[in-house]
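Inverse folding, one chain.
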């Protein structure tokens, strides 16, 4: 009986979590006038008017490509910087290592809202406002990524490194040939988090982007809701487009995420 009750509770929780996505999709294919009437899970008049309107009022392909390029480049750079720093903190000995690591982690307590003004002043000083560089450069380092990957590197047996040193390998070869393959689940998990963070970023792009040429998906959807407040089907169509890549990426990386969580629970 307890297992049935637990299954029922989990089923209700799953439905509550899925319902907003279902409602978003249903609204995106509902005729504009019907959205403002009695809400229905099965619309009386379904169509793709919302998607057509979305691509008519915005250069949506360009905006989507901007977000995709930004997310891919930012994620790749974050994986490089975070993995190399994690290896250094976990395997190399240098004066003040623990102090530097604690100070680096302390930056996690500083909210992004506090950093917006000094970052903008710095970006403006280098004349990078309204460019791809202004979106990418401030995101190439992450204290959370270093912490997450360092923990994965730290649990690896040091005997692997010692055996590699005996064979004549250096730190670079050990990092590329031994460490990275063994922490692949953690890399995939953090890569997914980094991609989602960049894909959904709104505050920083809102500050540094001025033209539609460099506009990202969250900014495009925000401008759509501000200018066409009654076109809910178009707004929800944009939301569906923004959700699909994240769902696809999670479906591909799900196995690695589960493996990463399982390894984190093993001593």
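Residues assigned per position:
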């Amino acid at each position: 009986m307890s297992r049935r009750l637990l299954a029922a509770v989990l089923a209700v929780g799953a439905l509550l979590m899925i319902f907003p996505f279902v409602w978003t999709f249903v609204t995106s294919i509902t005729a504009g006038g019907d959205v403002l009437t009695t809400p229905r899970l099965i619309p009386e008049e379904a169509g793709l008017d919302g998607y057509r309107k979305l691509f008519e009022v915005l250069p949506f392909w360009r905006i989507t490509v901007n977000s995709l390029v930004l997310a891919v480049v930012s994620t790749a750079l974050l994986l490089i910087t975070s993995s190399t720093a994690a290896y250094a903190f976990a395997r190399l000995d240098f004066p003040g290592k623990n102090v530097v690591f604690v100070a680096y982690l302390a930056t996690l307590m500083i909210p992004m809202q506090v950093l917006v003004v000094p970052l903008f002043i710095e970006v403006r000083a280098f004349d990078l406002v309204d460019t791809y560089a202004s979106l990418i450069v401030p995101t190439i380092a992450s204290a959370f990524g270093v912490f997450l990957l360092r923990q994965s590197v730290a649990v690896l047996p040091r005997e692997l490194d010692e055996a590699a040193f005996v064979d004549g390998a250096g730190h670079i070869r050990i990092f590329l040939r031994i460490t990275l393959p063994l922490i692949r689940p953690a890399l995939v998990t953090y890569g997914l988090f980094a991609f989602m963070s960049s894909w959904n970023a709104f505050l920083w792009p809102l500050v540094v982007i001025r033209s539609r040429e460099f506009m990202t998906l969250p900014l495009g959807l925000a401008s759509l809701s501000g200018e066409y407040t009654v076109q809910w089907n178009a707004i929800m169509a944009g939301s569906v487009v923004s959700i699909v890549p994240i769902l696809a990426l999670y479906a591909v990386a799900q196995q690695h995420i589960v493996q990463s969580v399982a390894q984190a629970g093993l001593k």
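The mean pLDDT is 83. Residues 59-216+243-264 form a domain with the MetI-like fold fold (CATH 1.10.3720.10).
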